[in-house]
Amino acid sequence: MEITAAVTREQGSPPRLETLTLDAPRADELLVRIVAAGICHTDLSAPALSSLPAVFGHEGAGIVEAVGSAVEGFRPGDRVCLSFGSCGGCGACHEGAPAYCDHMMQLQFGGVRLDGTTTLHDGRAPVHGAFFQQSSFATHALATARNAVHVPDDIPLDIAAPFGCGIQTGAGAVLNVLELGAHESLVVFGAGSVGLAAIMAAKVAGCSPVVAVDPIAERRALAISLGATHAVDPSNHPDLLGELRDLCPGGAHASLETAGHVDSFTAAIDVLRMRGTCGLVTVPNMGRPFEFSPVSLLFGRRLVGILEGSSVPEVFLPRLFDLYRQGRLPVDRLIRRYPFSDIATAMADSASGRTVKPVLCMEE
């Protein structure tokens, strides 16, 4: 079928809307009419990690239009949120850890299905799709039953879209991995959508103190309003570590690094008390090597990498939807909506920090 998709053809250039051909759903696939799609910082860095031309987008939400013959649990008309891909057959998937699927890199960044085939064509050549097994910067996308989650009728799809990655990553880091409880301290480096989701989850868990570290004043204020007990400007503190340790006497029980800077990475480890845990959801310098001394880890401190909040989407997202309903996870306060045709502006606003969570609305 013909669809409209945002195609990135070269690094450094914004995507442009083009007419592409999308494959019909195979036996194990769903065809979803995309209503809304969140923009995540992974979408911004994806051109450097993926083959081009490509269609990105991995926080899609929409309406199922068709299902393959082997799909169970979904039917046309269902409202769904799309998340990350997993194979369902490897050891990690069988252990209930699909975020760490053996085929994770291919399924998220390979631009193809698990069998290596493409889903999109421009009339001349294939276009890389299947980004996170969705490529939702488009009017329609193919997904699988493993990365589609039912959305309750009372939750708008433009609100549900970011739950598929950014929200579950931050909330899952706190609730699934760090497993913090009442009166335990957390320092969050970076108050973007992932960091703010973590702060909201920390409030749900009863953590205190909860400290947000971000150079943008508006984001610090938003963090306080969402549950942080303190907010610190790292650019205005010659002794940032000392300030944080004053707020968390003895050191923090846990920290979460979402900012992706060398300084925040090292501070997130050094701020911990002995046997504290630092959760890492991104890496500095796009993964390029940098100087780091592991001495501070000798004091029982742990550094743990976290993908997608270590969640099982069909289990965890309904829990987060319930928290949203209760007013305890007010994701709507992070969102600014953009028409699909204005994707270049939305991506620029995400990159600059002007907007915490841009959401593209396909039908506006």
Describe the structure.
The mean pLDDT is 95. The chain has 2 domains: 2-164 and 330-361, Alpha-Beta Complex (Quinone Oxidoreductase, Chain A, domain 1), CATH 3.90.180; 167-308, 3-Layer(aba) Sandwich (Rossmann fold), CATH 3.40.50.720. The protein has 11 helices and 17 strands. The protein has 364 residues and is of the alpha/beta class.
Write the layout of secondary structure elements.
Elements lengths: L1 E6 L8 E7 L6 E10 L2 H9 L10 E8 L11 E4 L8 H4 L9 H6 L10 E2 L4 E2 L12 E5 L3 E3 L6 H4 L5 H13 L7 E4 L3 H13 L4 E4 L3 H10 L3 E3 L7 H8 L4 E6 L4 H9 L1 E9 L21 E4 L7 H13 L9 E5 L3 H10 L4 E5 L3
Parallel strand pairs: 10-11, 10-13, 11-12, 13-14, 14-15, 16-17
Antiparallel strand pairs: 1-2, 2-6, 3-4, 3-8, 3-17, 4-5, 5-9, 6-7
